[in-house]
Amino acid sequence: MTRLGWFLLLAFVAVIGTFLLIVNKGGHIPGTSRPAAAESDAPLAAAGAANKAGGGLIVPVAGVQPGQLTNSWGDERGDGTRQHHAIDIMAPRGTPVLAAAAGTVEKIFESANGGHTVYIRRDDAGWQDYYAHLDAYVADLREGVKVRQGQQIGTVGSTGDASPEAPHLHYEIHRMAPGETWSKGSEVNPFPILHG
Ligand SMILES: [Zn+2]
């Protein structure tokens, strides 16, 4: 090979080498960009939006609109020994129960009347939401865990003293005075709030 031949060969190798170096250094090759992160919260957010109710809350049972609610506040319970200070939201067993508001799980409690229950303190600590007769909790529900509005916390059921033929969510709203813990507070009728 002539001197010029060697020179051209070396120059060729140098050009190819430089090109490969640029590509390997992470030079951007069109068409290979990573897709945007998946919106993992999308289904929950969608469920919440569909259930939009008054008071900045959502109806805490998936697929139920505010207009479908009935006011069962003040109904007699326990053969007239006590009044119903809650709203009962009828739904098939297993329907997702959603957090009406964002907050922190304060207490998961087994109640004779309420069955599987959960108390969630809102981010505004002056309010607490109470959910009862759950068929089951979601697997990762723990005391101290934060929940987003619309996040599923369990499923509709009939645990406690609810009729097995009429599964429903028993939902209460509690006004909490400073320092009051989960078992305290005073019930407020959720119906006019949810109804808007
Ligand atoms: Zn009830």
Characterize the overall form: elongated
The CATH superfamily title:
Glucose Permease (Domain IIA)
Percent strand equals: 25-35%
Compute the number of helices: 3
Helix content: 10-25%
Bound molecules: zinc ion
CATH level-1 class: Mainly Beta
Give the mean pLDDT. Answer: 85
The assembly state of the depicted protein chains is single chain
Question: Summary?
Answer:
The protein has 196 residues and is an alpha+beta fold. The chain contains 3 helices and 12 strands; from the N terminus they run H-H-E-E-E-E-E-E-E-E-E-E-E-E-H. It has a single domain (48-195), classed as Glucose Permease (Domain IIA).
List keywords for this structure.
single chain, 196 residues, alpha+beta, Glucose Permease (Domain IIA), three-stranded antiparallel beta sheet, 12 strands, binds zinc ion
Question: What do you see in this structure?
Answer:
The protein is of the alpha+beta class and 196 residues long. It has a single domain (48-195), classed as Glucose Permease (Domain IIA). Helices cover 19% and strands 28% of the residues. The chain contains 3 helices and 12 strands, in the order ααββββββββββββα. The protein has helices at 3-24, 42-50, 190-195; strands at residues 76-77, 82-83, 87-90, 96-98, 103-111, 115-122, 127-134, 136-137, 146-147, 152-155, 168-175, 186-188. Strands 3, 5, 6, 7, 9, 11 and 12 form a 7-stranded antiparallel β-sheet that branches. The longest helix is centred in the N-terminal third of the chain and has 22 residues, at 3-24. The protein is elongated and about 110 Å long. The protein starts with a helix and ends with a helix. The model is unreliable at 26-46 (pLDDT under 50). Zinc ion (ZN) binds at residues 84, 86, 88, 170. Zinc ion is lined by residues 84, 86, 88, 170.
